[in-house]
Structure formats: C-alpha cells, structure tokens
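for the record, two folds in this file. i put them one after another cuz i was lazy. first one right below, seq on top, structure tokens after. the second one comes after a little note so u can tell where it starts
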Amino acid sequence: MLTETYKAKAVIEEDVVAAIAAFMTDPTPSPFVIGDEYRLDLAAAVRAHEWASVTVRTKDATENLKRAAVRTASLLARPEKP
C-alpha cells in the first residue's frame, strides 16, 4: 500500500498532495508518478474504494471532503514500480 511507502518516507507529503491535486484536476485514468520510483492509477484507486468513489461523484460533497476521500483511497492503493 502507498501508506507503507509513505511511512518509509519513500513518498513524502508533497507527493501525496500533488497526486490528490492531479486527480481533482483530471480524474481520468492514467498513471501518476508519485515519489521517485512509483506510479499510481488514482482513478482506479478511487473506483476501488467505495466511500471515495461515492464521495467524488456526490454533487453536494465539499471540495475538502472529496480531497480527503481521494487521499484515503490513494494511501490504501498499491503503487507500482515502472
């Protein structure tokens, strides 16, 4: 999980924030380079996480709630090494 790489400091907070911002700007499926050596499909991560999937599609959800949902889904996803 991305959480493990985050705890090991292979991915830093700025990387996670950038990933969330990228998804919020363009939620289409595509690999996002996170950290120096990982890729993460944020759209797939959000689709795979029920709460995040519902939250990002909810019209009345606040921007902060949507970002929190994407963050949760991202941290629970498994990044890949290219």
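(here's the note) second protein begins now
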Amino acid sequence: MTSVLHRIALALAALLFLTAEAAAQAPGARPGGPGGPQRGARPEAASPDAPPAAARAAIPWVDVHTHLVGGGQRLGAQDYDAAAAAIIKAMDEANVRASFVMPTPQPAGGAGNYDQDAFLSAIKPYRGRLFAMGGGGSIGPMILAQPDAGEVDDARRERFVTMAKAILDAGAIGFGEMTVTHLSHLEQHSYHRARPDHPLFLLLADIAAQRDVPIDLHMDPVIEPGPAPAHMKSSRNPATLVPNLAQFEVLLAHNRAARIVWAHAGWDQTEHWTADLARRLLAAHANLYMSLKVQPRSPLRNQALGRDGQIAPEWKQLMVDFPDRFVMGTDRFYAGENAAGGTAAGAVFAERTPSLTVGARILLNQLPPDLARKVAISNVEKIYKVKID
C-alpha cells in the first residue's frame, strides 16, 4: 500500500512539474527566470507554486531559508508587514508549516544594511509559523570589513560578541545568512568574500555552540583559483575566485558542538559543488548540515533536480545515506505589493523565485516517506531546536 501511495505522489509531483514547465514555455510566457512572472507583476498572481488541491494535501514541510523584501527606499521605511502577509499566503498554498526568515548577507559598508530587527515586528503576529534568523546585516559585515584578517583586536572581538548575543536575546533562533563566498547574479547584487576560518567566524562558532543554535552559511564552493562561471555575467565578480574549501574544514573542525547549515545544496553555481564533494564533507564533519535549494529545469550542472523533474540519483542516495543532515531551504524572496516591480535585487528575486517552492515540493515527493518526513520537519526540529506545530 505504501509503495502505491508513493507512486501516486511521484505522479502528482511530475504533473506539477510539467504544468509549471508548460506554463513557462507557452506562447506569451513571462520572462524573469524559470516560470517567473514579468517584472512589475504581483509575484503571488503569477506564482507557479499554487498547486492543485491534491498536491497541496501532500506532506507538510518547513522552509528554513527565506527572505522578506520591503517596499520603501529608505532604511526603516520598508513595508515588511506586507511581505510577511505574502509569505504566509504562499506557505498556505504550498503546505509549508513554518518558514525561517533572515536578512540577506550584506557587504561591509553597504548602504541600507539591515538585520532581523527590521522585520521582527512584522513576523510577530505569525508566532509559530515565522521564525527569525539574524546576523547577516550586522556581524556579517564586521567580518567582511577585514576578509583576510589573521587576528582581531580585543575591542573588536568584544563588540562582535556583544552584537551576536544581542541577536539571540532579541529572539533569533540562529545566525544567518552569514556568508563566506557570495557570487553576484545581477549588477544590483553584491559580491563578497571572507575566509571561512576568519577569527570572527571561529568566535561565532563558539557562541553558537554555547547558545545551542545553528549558523546558516552561504558559501559558493571554490576548489581552485579561476574565473566565475560564464553564466555569472555580473561585473561585480572578481576575475579570479579564491579557494575556500580547506579553510571551511578548519571552521567545521574548530568547535564540533557548532551546527553549521551549508545553504543552497543541490544548486551548484560554481560547478564545484558535486554530490561527491558533499559526501566527503558530510562524512568528515558530523556537525555539517545542508539545506536544499532546488531549481526546476535548471540548465546548470550538479543540480539535485534534473531537467526532467527527477531527483538526481547521486543526490537521492546522498540523502538516503545521511538522512539526518538535510533540510529544505528554498532561498525564496517574498515582497509586499509596494515592492513588486522594483529594480533592486530583492524585488527582482521576489519575482523570479516562486518556482523554488515548486522544486522543493517535487523533491520531497520523490523521497522515501520516512526520509521525506525527516527532511521536511524532523531534522529541522533537531538542528534548529524548535517545535513545529
């Protein structure tokens, strides 16, 4: 009976995938990413992740990596209330039980840096469904200001510790989105880099271990020096990327009690993040976890979901072999109506990323039921120390 139900779930997933693909390829389909809406349209109106009732009734899940986009141009004037309402609506449509909201990683000295305090009041009415992560707009830029520092003076360390603890005291359930190597996708989108074994990253690992919270880390992996991939057109990316894997392993080994969630697994932008690389690191570091980001119909290599809508066998086997180490994190952006159609990177991504929720549903529906339940919710509760109702 279980196998029959599983085949039915796969059929529904395939139907949903093909429906979204057909809509994207139909005459007059809107540009802006795979299946994405036209610039200026309301994202929820054109979102491909409004599944039929049968698919909506499938396994509930948690999205551990999302962003809110405000509607104003000045810091403090953004309409995060509308963005929070937008994410709740999308969650209800996709059977998402809870979402973790976090600031995008902000560059050092960038204009308009923000952190979880910007949207805490907006998510407060949705207690139990929306949770905050913090640090990407405050302590993250402190690291990026001296990306290759071998040591940090006492005053800077003390300030960093004070800020990090204040983030958790304000209600954040972990640190994120922190960044090591972050490639630029658009001219409006920032590039930044810091050593994974930076003294402040090592200090953050100690704080996270002490407070029993995870670190969400964005690191586009770079194995050897070389240019950014050809599909990365932004002039903000450097001519030569700096390797980061050896230093990343130093961070992982520094404090084994620090849980590090490597964001965007299964979505390889550098053509270095293979399932084999993930397997080696997961086997070597028991405190490493990965959140899966799945892009339907992606033309890039090493993706967890093939263009045919089927999960790549090597990624599926990886999840089977490490069933407690994966969660879903779409990296989807949610904007209120006032932000729709904007030219800032966040507004553009809000219109391009609804298909990532579709991808998550497709992937979950193809996992064995027990594994799907772990990736969907059980692992989240253990890694982030939260109870999902």
